[in-house]
Design brief:
This protein is of the alpha/beta class. It has 14 helices and seven strands. The protein has helices spanning about 1-5, 15-70, 80-90, 105-115, 135-150, 165-175, 205-210, 230-245, 260-265, 275-285, 310-335, 350-380, 390-405, 410-420, and strands at about 95-100, 125-130, 155-160, 185-190, 215-220, 255-260, 290-300. A seven-stranded mixed beta sheet has the order 3-2-1-4-6-5-7, sandwiched between helices. The longest helix is centred in the N-terminal third of the chain and has 56 residues, at about 15-70. The protein is globular. InterPro entries: Glyco_trans_2-like (IPR001173), Nucleotide-diphossugar_trans (IPR029044). This is glucomannan 4-beta-mannosyltransferase.
Protein backbone atom coordinates (compact mmCIF):
# COMPACT_ATOMS: atom_id res chain seq x y z
CA UNK A 1 0.00 0.00 0.00
CA UNK A 2 2.84 2.35 0.87
CA UNK A 3 4.55 1.64 -2.46
CA UNK A 4 1.41 2.58 -4.32
CA UNK A 5 1.15 5.92 -2.52
CA UNK A 6 4.80 6.91 -3.01
CA UNK A 7 5.08 5.85 -6.69
CA UNK A 8 5.11 8.81 -9.10
CA UNK A 9 2.48 8.81 -11.81
CA UNK A 10 3.86 7.87 -15.23
CA UNK A 11 3.90 10.62 -17.86
CA UNK A 12 2.88 9.26 -21.23
CA UNK A 13 2.54 12.54 -23.14
CA UNK A 14 5.31 11.75 -25.66
CA UNK A 15 3.94 8.31 -26.33
CA UNK A 16 0.49 9.77 -26.87
CA UNK A 17 1.78 12.38 -29.37
CA UNK A 18 3.78 9.77 -31.28
CA UNK A 19 0.81 7.45 -31.38
CA UNK A 20 -1.48 10.23 -32.56
CA UNK A 21 0.89 11.26 -35.34
CA UNK A 22 1.37 7.67 -36.42
CA UNK A 23 -2.38 7.08 -36.41
CA UNK A 24 -3.01 10.25 -38.45
CA UNK A 25 -0.25 9.35 -40.95
CA UNK A 26 -1.65 5.85 -41.47
CA UNK A 27 -5.11 7.23 -42.17
CA UNK A 28 -4.14 10.04 -44.57
CA UNK A 29 -1.28 8.32 -46.37
CA UNK A 30 -3.25 6.14 -48.76
CA UNK A 31 -6.33 8.30 -49.44
CA UNK A 32 -4.57 11.70 -49.49
CA UNK A 33 -0.75 11.56 -49.73
CA UNK A 34 -0.48 8.81 -52.34
CA UNK A 35 -2.76 10.48 -54.94
CA UNK A 36 -1.14 13.89 -54.44
CA UNK A 37 2.36 12.47 -54.69
CA UNK A 38 1.45 10.44 -57.76
CA UNK A 39 0.08 13.53 -59.51
CA UNK A 40 3.24 15.46 -58.55
CA UNK A 41 5.44 12.71 -60.00
CA UNK A 42 3.51 12.74 -63.28
CA UNK A 43 3.77 16.53 -63.54
CA UNK A 44 7.49 16.47 -62.77
CA UNK A 45 7.97 13.65 -65.28
CA UNK A 46 6.41 15.76 -68.04
CA UNK A 47 8.54 18.77 -67.09
CA UNK A 48 11.71 16.64 -66.99
CA UNK A 49 10.99 15.32 -70.48
CA UNK A 50 10.38 18.87 -71.76
CA UNK A 51 13.69 19.99 -70.29
CA UNK A 52 15.46 16.93 -71.69
CA UNK A 53 14.10 17.55 -75.20
CA UNK A 54 15.23 21.19 -75.03
CA UNK A 55 18.73 20.14 -73.95
CA UNK A 56 18.96 17.57 -76.76
CA UNK A 57 17.84 20.15 -79.31
CA UNK A 58 20.46 22.66 -78.17
CA UNK A 59 23.14 19.96 -78.11
CA UNK A 60 22.37 18.99 -81.71
CA UNK A 61 22.43 22.62 -82.88
CA UNK A 62 25.67 23.50 -81.09
CA UNK A 63 27.40 20.36 -82.40
CA UNK A 64 26.37 21.23 -85.97
CA UNK A 65 27.48 24.82 -85.54
CA UNK A 66 30.89 23.81 -84.22
CA UNK A 67 31.46 21.05 -86.76
CA UNK A 68 30.45 23.24 -89.71
CA UNK A 69 32.16 26.31 -88.26
CA UNK A 70 29.22 28.52 -89.23
CA UNK A 71 28.56 30.72 -86.25
CA UNK A 72 26.37 33.63 -87.18
CA UNK A 73 28.93 36.35 -86.52
CA UNK A 74 31.48 34.65 -88.78
CA UNK A 75 29.44 35.48 -91.86
CA UNK A 76 30.45 39.12 -91.41
CA UNK A 77 33.85 40.01 -92.86
CA UNK A 78 35.01 41.94 -89.82
CA UNK A 79 38.45 42.88 -91.20
CA UNK A 80 36.94 44.33 -94.36
CA UNK A 81 34.40 46.28 -92.32
CA UNK A 82 37.15 47.72 -90.13
CA UNK A 83 39.26 48.73 -93.14
CA UNK A 84 36.29 50.41 -94.77
CA UNK A 85 35.52 52.29 -91.55
CA UNK A 86 39.10 53.52 -91.22
CA UNK A 87 39.28 54.49 -94.89
CA UNK A 88 36.08 56.56 -94.84
CA UNK A 89 36.76 58.03 -91.38
CA UNK A 90 33.02 57.82 -90.72
CA UNK A 91 33.24 56.85 -87.07
CA UNK A 92 29.88 56.81 -85.30
CA UNK A 93 29.43 58.53 -81.94
CA UNK A 94 29.58 55.91 -79.16
CA UNK A 95 28.43 56.26 -75.56
CA UNK A 96 29.93 54.07 -72.82
CA UNK A 97 27.72 53.71 -69.73
CA UNK A 98 29.24 52.43 -66.46
CA UNK A 99 26.55 52.09 -63.76
CA UNK A 100 28.02 51.64 -60.29
CA UNK A 101 26.93 51.53 -56.68
CA UNK A 102 29.51 51.63 -53.87
CA UNK A 103 32.11 49.86 -56.02
CA UNK A 104 35.15 50.52 -53.86
CA UNK A 105 37.36 47.71 -55.18
CA UNK A 106 36.80 47.92 -58.94
CA UNK A 107 35.86 51.45 -59.93
CA UNK A 108 39.39 52.35 -61.06
CA UNK A 109 39.69 49.21 -63.17
CA UNK A 110 36.35 49.65 -64.93
CA UNK A 111 36.78 53.37 -65.62
CA UNK A 112 40.36 52.86 -66.77
CA UNK A 113 39.45 50.00 -69.11
CA UNK A 114 36.58 51.95 -70.70
CA UNK A 115 38.64 55.10 -71.10
CA UNK A 116 41.42 53.05 -72.70
CA UNK A 117 39.25 51.71 -75.52
CA UNK A 118 40.69 52.22 -78.98
CA UNK A 119 38.36 54.70 -80.71
CA UNK A 120 38.69 58.32 -81.85
CA UNK A 121 38.49 60.44 -78.70
CA UNK A 122 36.15 62.98 -80.29
CA UNK A 123 33.67 60.18 -81.14
CA UNK A 124 33.56 58.60 -77.68
CA UNK A 125 31.80 59.58 -74.44
CA UNK A 126 32.38 57.67 -71.21
CA UNK A 127 29.45 58.18 -68.85
CA UNK A 128 29.99 57.13 -65.23
CA UNK A 129 26.61 56.70 -63.51
CA UNK A 130 27.45 56.74 -59.83
CA UNK A 131 24.61 55.88 -57.43
CA UNK A 132 26.96 55.39 -54.49
CA UNK A 133 25.62 56.37 -51.06
CA UNK A 134 29.13 56.70 -49.60
CA UNK A 135 30.16 60.35 -50.01
CA UNK A 136 33.86 59.56 -49.61
CA UNK A 137 33.65 56.94 -52.35
CA UNK A 138 31.77 59.37 -54.58
CA UNK A 139 34.59 61.85 -54.23
CA UNK A 140 37.14 59.18 -55.15
CA UNK A 141 35.17 58.15 -58.25
CA UNK A 142 34.81 61.77 -59.33
CA UNK A 143 38.54 62.29 -58.82
CA UNK A 144 39.27 59.28 -61.02
CA UNK A 145 37.03 60.71 -63.74
CA UNK A 146 38.85 64.03 -63.59
CA UNK A 147 42.18 62.28 -64.06
CA UNK A 148 40.98 60.79 -67.34
CA UNK A 149 39.45 64.10 -68.43
CA UNK A 150 42.89 65.67 -68.04
CA UNK A 151 44.25 62.94 -70.33
CA UNK A 152 41.86 64.01 -73.09
CA UNK A 153 39.04 61.48 -72.59
CA UNK A 154 35.47 62.80 -72.72
CA UNK A 155 34.24 61.53 -69.35
CA UNK A 156 30.88 62.57 -67.88
CA UNK A 157 30.39 61.95 -64.16
CA UNK A 158 26.68 61.72 -63.34
CA UNK A 159 25.03 61.30 -59.91
CA UNK A 160 21.46 61.23 -58.64
CA UNK A 161 19.79 62.35 -55.42
CA UNK A 162 17.83 59.09 -55.31
CA UNK A 163 18.10 55.53 -56.57
CA UNK A 164 14.72 55.31 -58.26
CA UNK A 165 14.71 52.36 -60.63
CA UNK A 166 18.17 51.29 -59.46
CA UNK A 167 20.32 50.29 -62.44
CA UNK A 168 17.50 50.69 -64.97
CA UNK A 169 16.73 54.15 -63.61
CA UNK A 170 20.37 55.22 -63.83
CA UNK A 171 20.71 53.97 -67.42
CA UNK A 172 17.43 55.61 -68.42
CA UNK A 173 18.39 58.99 -66.98
CA UNK A 174 21.84 58.69 -68.53
CA UNK A 175 20.34 58.37 -72.02
CA UNK A 176 18.26 61.50 -71.45
CA UNK A 177 21.28 63.80 -71.18
CA UNK A 178 21.57 66.47 -73.85
CA UNK A 179 25.00 65.33 -75.08
CA UNK A 180 23.69 61.80 -75.79
CA UNK A 181 21.48 62.95 -78.67
CA UNK A 182 24.44 62.80 -81.06
CA UNK A 183 25.31 59.20 -80.06
CA UNK A 184 24.29 56.31 -82.30
CA UNK A 185 25.34 53.38 -80.10
CA UNK A 186 25.55 52.77 -76.36
CA UNK A 187 27.86 50.25 -74.70
CA UNK A 188 27.13 49.04 -71.17
CA UNK A 189 29.75 47.74 -68.77
CA UNK A 190 29.00 46.89 -65.16
CA UNK A 191 31.53 48.20 -62.66
CA UNK A 192 33.40 44.89 -62.40
CA UNK A 193 33.97 44.50 -66.16
CA UNK A 194 37.21 45.38 -67.90
CA UNK A 195 36.95 45.26 -71.72
CA UNK A 196 39.95 44.79 -73.98
CA UNK A 197 41.25 47.77 -75.93
CA UNK A 198 39.79 46.58 -79.27
CA UNK A 199 36.27 45.91 -77.98
CA UNK A 200 34.58 48.60 -80.08
CA UNK A 201 36.43 47.57 -83.24
CA UNK A 202 35.09 44.03 -82.78
CA UNK A 203 31.45 45.02 -82.18
CA UNK A 204 30.50 48.33 -83.83
CA UNK A 205 31.17 47.11 -87.44
CA UNK A 206 28.43 44.48 -87.09
CA UNK A 207 25.88 47.19 -86.31
CA UNK A 208 27.10 49.39 -89.15
CA UNK A 209 26.88 46.52 -91.65
CA UNK A 210 23.38 45.35 -90.73
CA UNK A 211 20.80 48.07 -89.93
CA UNK A 212 18.43 45.40 -88.54
CA UNK A 213 20.82 44.55 -85.71
CA UNK A 214 19.83 46.13 -82.42
CA UNK A 215 22.30 44.39 -80.09
CA UNK A 216 25.76 42.85 -80.23
CA UNK A 217 26.43 40.75 -77.12
CA UNK A 218 29.89 39.61 -76.05
CA UNK A 219 30.57 36.73 -73.68
CA UNK A 220 32.08 36.96 -70.21
CA UNK A 221 35.56 35.86 -69.19
CA UNK A 222 35.88 34.99 -65.53
CA UNK A 223 38.82 36.03 -63.41
CA UNK A 224 37.95 33.46 -60.72
CA UNK A 225 36.80 30.69 -63.05
CA UNK A 226 37.18 27.90 -60.48
CA UNK A 227 34.23 29.16 -58.43
CA UNK A 228 30.95 28.56 -60.31
CA UNK A 229 31.78 28.93 -63.97
CA UNK A 230 30.23 25.83 -65.50
CA UNK A 231 26.56 26.89 -65.42
CA UNK A 232 27.38 30.36 -66.78
CA UNK A 233 29.71 28.96 -69.41
CA UNK A 234 26.85 26.74 -70.62
CA UNK A 235 24.67 29.84 -70.85
CA UNK A 236 27.15 31.55 -73.18
CA UNK A 237 28.61 28.59 -75.07
CA UNK A 238 25.29 26.89 -75.73
CA UNK A 239 22.14 28.86 -74.97
CA UNK A 240 23.22 32.19 -76.45
CA UNK A 241 25.23 30.63 -79.26
CA UNK A 242 22.25 28.50 -80.29
CA UNK A 243 19.87 31.46 -80.13
CA UNK A 244 22.18 33.62 -82.21
CA UNK A 245 23.10 30.93 -84.77
CA UNK A 246 19.47 29.98 -85.41
CA UNK A 247 18.34 33.64 -85.50
CA UNK A 248 16.11 33.02 -82.50
CA UNK A 249 15.68 35.20 -79.43
CA UNK A 250 18.30 35.30 -76.71
CA UNK A 251 18.46 37.69 -73.78
CA UNK A 252 20.73 40.61 -73.10
CA UNK A 253 23.07 39.88 -70.19
CA UNK A 254 22.92 43.40 -68.80
CA UNK A 255 26.56 44.18 -69.57
CA UNK A 256 29.32 43.67 -72.16
CA UNK A 257 26.90 44.49 -74.96
CA UNK A 258 26.43 47.24 -77.57
CA UNK A 259 22.93 48.58 -78.22
CA UNK A 260 21.73 50.67 -81.12
CA UNK A 261 20.14 53.59 -79.28
CA UNK A 262 17.32 53.67 -81.80
CA UNK A 263 16.44 50.08 -80.83
CA UNK A 264 16.40 51.00 -77.14
CA UNK A 265 14.09 53.94 -77.77
CA UNK A 266 11.91 51.94 -80.13
CA UNK A 267 11.42 49.30 -77.42
CA UNK A 268 10.30 51.91 -74.91
CA UNK A 269 13.57 52.43 -73.08
CA UNK A 270 14.67 51.01 -69.75
CA UNK A 271 11.94 49.87 -67.35
CA UNK A 272 12.33 48.95 -63.69
CA UNK A 273 9.22 46.79 -63.26
CA UNK A 274 11.32 43.67 -62.53
CA UNK A 275 14.81 42.83 -61.29
CA UNK A 276 15.81 41.68 -64.81
CA UNK A 277 15.61 45.00 -66.61
CA UNK A 278 18.13 43.75 -69.19
CA UNK A 279 15.94 40.81 -70.20
CA UNK A 280 12.88 43.07 -70.21
CA UNK A 281 14.48 45.44 -72.71
CA UNK A 282 15.70 42.59 -74.91
CA UNK A 283 12.25 40.99 -75.14
CA UNK A 284 10.57 44.29 -76.03
CA UNK A 285 13.21 45.12 -78.64
CA UNK A 286 12.90 41.65 -80.17
CA UNK A 287 9.13 42.03 -80.38
CA UNK A 288 9.72 45.24 -82.32
CA UNK A 289 11.62 43.28 -84.95
CA UNK A 290 15.21 44.05 -83.94
CA UNK A 291 17.74 41.24 -84.30
CA UNK A 292 20.61 40.30 -81.99
CA UNK A 293 23.98 38.68 -82.58
CA UNK A 294 26.22 36.94 -80.05
CA UNK A 295 29.98 37.21 -80.64
CA UNK A 296 31.38 34.14 -78.93
CA UNK A 297 35.05 34.84 -79.60
CA UNK A 298 34.93 38.23 -77.88
CA UNK A 299 35.23 37.95 -74.09
CA UNK A 300 35.14 40.66 -71.43
CA UNK A 301 36.85 39.97 -68.13
CA UNK A 302 34.83 40.13 -64.91
CA UNK A 303 34.60 38.52 -61.49
CA UNK A 304 32.09 35.89 -60.39
CA UNK A 305 30.56 36.10 -56.89
CA UNK A 306 33.20 34.79 -54.49
CA UNK A 307 30.96 34.42 -51.41
CA UNK A 308 27.91 32.28 -50.86
CA UNK A 309 25.80 35.31 -49.93
CA UNK A 310 26.63 37.11 -53.17
CA UNK A 311 26.10 33.93 -55.19
CA UNK A 312 22.72 33.32 -53.50
CA UNK A 313 21.59 36.89 -54.27
CA UNK A 314 22.67 36.52 -57.89
CA UNK A 315 20.86 33.21 -58.36
CA UNK A 316 17.71 34.52 -56.66
CA UNK A 317 17.63 37.43 -59.09
CA UNK A 318 18.21 35.20 -62.10
CA UNK A 319 15.55 32.67 -61.08
CA UNK A 320 12.75 34.90 -59.73
CA UNK A 321 13.20 37.83 -62.10
CA UNK A 322 12.46 35.96 -65.36
CA UNK A 323 9.39 34.30 -63.82
CA UNK A 324 8.06 37.68 -62.75
CA UNK A 325 8.77 39.15 -66.18
CA UNK A 326 7.08 36.19 -67.86
CA UNK A 327 3.97 36.78 -65.76
CA UNK A 328 3.85 40.44 -66.76
CA UNK A 329 4.69 40.04 -70.45
CA UNK A 330 2.84 36.89 -71.57
CA UNK A 331 -0.21 38.78 -72.78
CA UNK A 332 1.97 41.46 -74.37
CA UNK A 333 3.96 38.85 -76.29
CA UNK A 334 0.84 37.04 -77.53
CA UNK A 335 -0.93 40.20 -78.72
CA UNK A 336 2.16 41.86 -80.16
CA UNK A 337 2.01 42.61 -83.89
CA UNK A 338 5.60 43.80 -84.17
CA UNK A 339 5.09 46.78 -86.47
CA UNK A 340 7.88 49.29 -85.97
CA UNK A 341 10.59 51.24 -87.74
CA UNK A 342 11.69 48.02 -89.42
CA UNK A 343 8.12 47.28 -90.62
CA UNK A 344 8.45 43.65 -89.58
CA UNK A 345 5.80 41.51 -87.98
CA UNK A 346 6.54 39.09 -85.19
CA UNK A 347 5.77 35.58 -86.42
CA UNK A 348 3.75 33.06 -84.44
CA UNK A 349 6.83 30.81 -84.32
CA UNK A 350 8.92 33.55 -82.72
CA UNK A 351 6.24 34.20 -80.11
CA UNK A 352 6.08 30.48 -79.37
CA UNK A 353 9.87 30.26 -79.10
CA UNK A 354 10.05 33.19 -76.65
CA UNK A 355 7.17 31.97 -74.49
CA UNK A 356 7.84 28.22 -74.52
CA UNK A 357 11.58 27.71 -74.99
CA UNK A 358 13.13 30.86 -73.54
CA UNK A 359 10.78 31.59 -70.65
CA UNK A 360 8.77 28.48 -69.78
CA UNK A 361 11.36 25.72 -70.21
CA UNK A 362 14.68 27.45 -69.51
CA UNK A 363 13.62 30.03 -66.91
CA UNK A 364 10.76 28.32 -65.06
CA UNK A 365 10.73 24.55 -65.56
CA UNK A 366 14.51 24.24 -65.18
CA UNK A 367 14.38 25.87 -61.72
CA UNK A 368 11.11 24.20 -60.73
CA UNK A 369 12.31 20.68 -61.53
CA UNK A 370 15.61 21.23 -59.78
CA UNK A 371 13.95 22.24 -56.52
CA UNK A 372 10.48 20.66 -56.39
CA UNK A 373 11.25 17.29 -57.97
CA UNK A 374 14.73 16.58 -56.63
CA UNK A 375 14.35 18.21 -53.21
CA UNK A 376 10.68 17.55 -52.38
CA UNK A 377 8.99 14.86 -54.47
CA UNK A 378 11.79 12.28 -54.57
CA UNK A 379 12.53 12.45 -50.80
CA UNK A 380 8.80 12.32 -50.02
CA UNK A 381 8.30 9.24 -52.22
CA UNK A 382 10.76 7.33 -50.03
CA UNK A 383 8.37 7.72 -47.09
CA UNK A 384 5.41 6.39 -49.09
CA UNK A 385 6.10 2.82 -50.31
CA UNK A 386 2.81 2.72 -52.23
CA UNK A 387 4.18 5.27 -54.73
CA UNK A 388 6.34 3.94 -57.54
CA UNK A 389 9.04 6.32 -58.75
CA UNK A 390 10.10 5.48 -62.34
CA UNK A 391 13.86 5.07 -62.66
CA UNK A 392 14.08 6.77 -66.10
CA UNK A 393 12.53 9.92 -64.65
CA UNK A 394 14.42 9.89 -61.36
CA UNK A 395 17.85 8.74 -62.60
CA UNK A 396 18.39 8.41 -66.34
CA UNK A 397 16.95 11.72 -67.57
CA UNK A 398 18.71 13.87 -64.90
CA UNK A 399 21.97 12.02 -65.64
CA UNK A 400 21.51 12.59 -69.38
CA UNK A 401 20.80 16.31 -68.87
CA UNK A 402 23.90 16.69 -66.70
CA UNK A 403 26.01 14.84 -69.26
CA UNK A 404 24.76 17.03 -72.11
CA UNK A 405 25.47 20.16 -70.08
CA UNK A 406 29.03 18.98 -69.45
CA UNK A 407 29.78 17.80 -72.98
CA UNK A 408 28.42 20.98 -74.57
CA UNK A 409 30.54 23.14 -72.27
CA UNK A 410 34.13 22.98 -73.57
CA UNK A 411 35.63 24.30 -70.32
CA UNK A 412 34.07 21.70 -68.01
CA UNK A 413 37.18 19.52 -67.92
CA UNK A 414 39.48 22.52 -67.56
CA UNK A 415 37.42 23.83 -64.61
CA UNK A 416 37.36 20.42 -62.94
CA UNK A 417 41.13 20.06 -63.36
CA UNK A 418 41.72 23.51 -61.89
CA UNK A 419 39.56 22.68 -58.89
CA UNK A 420 41.54 19.51 -58.18
CA UNK A 421 44.82 21.36 -58.66
CA UNK A 422 43.66 24.22 -56.45
CA UNK A 423 42.61 21.85 -53.67
Amino acid sequence: MRNLVLRKPEVRVNDDITSSLSYAWQHIRVPVIVPLLTIAIHICAVMSIMLFVERVYMAIVIICVKLLGKKRYTKYKLDALKEDLEHNKSYPMVLIQIPMYNEKEVYKLSIGASCGLSWPSDRLIVQVLDDSTNEVLRALVELECRKWIEKGVNVKYETRNNRNGYKAGALREGLQKQYVKDCEFVVIFDADFQPEEDFLWRTIPYLLENPELGLVQARWKFGNAYDNEMSLDYHFSVEQEVGSSTCQFFGFNGTAGVWRIQAVNDAGGWKDRTTVEDMDLAVRASLKGWRFVFVGDLAVKNELPSTFKAYRFQQHRWSCGPANLFRKMTKEIILCEGLCYLTQRVSVWKKFQVIYAFFFVRKIIAHWVTFFFYCVVIPASILVPEVQLPKPIAIYIPAAITTLNALCTPRWYHSTYNKKKFC
